[in-house]
Amino acid sequence: MTGMTITAVRHLLRIAAPAALLAAVALLAAGCEVRNIDEVRPGMVFTEVETVMGSPEQKIHGDRLDAGKTTWVYPQGKVLFQGIFVIKVEKAGDGQTITERAEQQKSGR
Questions:
Q1: Which of 11, 58, 88, 101 could cysteine-pair with 73, CB 3.0–4.6 Å?
Q2: Domain match, 11 and 40 both
Q3: How many Cα neighbours within 13 Å face the side chain of 57?
């Protein structure tokens, strides 16, 4: 009886192992989505940013003085909104924002 059980378990493992491996790879691939904050531009709306970056780790809403301002925080940086529109993009670890670089390039031409 023990011999039959071991054989049955081995057979089951041979069948199930590849499927389990494929499922694990699919789950890992889903969690490794490439998000590029360089694609976020001023003038984009919430839904466009969410399409590019996914859901933010944190949403910071303005106080009474800045009631219409919201900041979305990602590991790659911050996206600042006025109302529903992006007004500024701050890349993590970068002294100059994407918006500031674009303005500098315009004035340098």
A1: 58
A2: no
A3: 7
Q: In which domain, by residue range, is 84 found?
A: 35-108
- How far, CA to CA in Å, does 33 sit from each of 39, 47, 57? 14, 17, 15
The dihedral sign for the CA sequence 71, 58, 50, 75? positive
10-residue mean pLDDT profile of the chain (109 residues): values are 68 66 53 79 96 96 84 96 96 71 71
The pTM for the full model equals 0.57
Tell me how many domains the chain contains: 2
State whether residue 25 is helix, strand or coil.
helix
The helix (H) or strand (E) run that includes residue 90 is strand 85-91
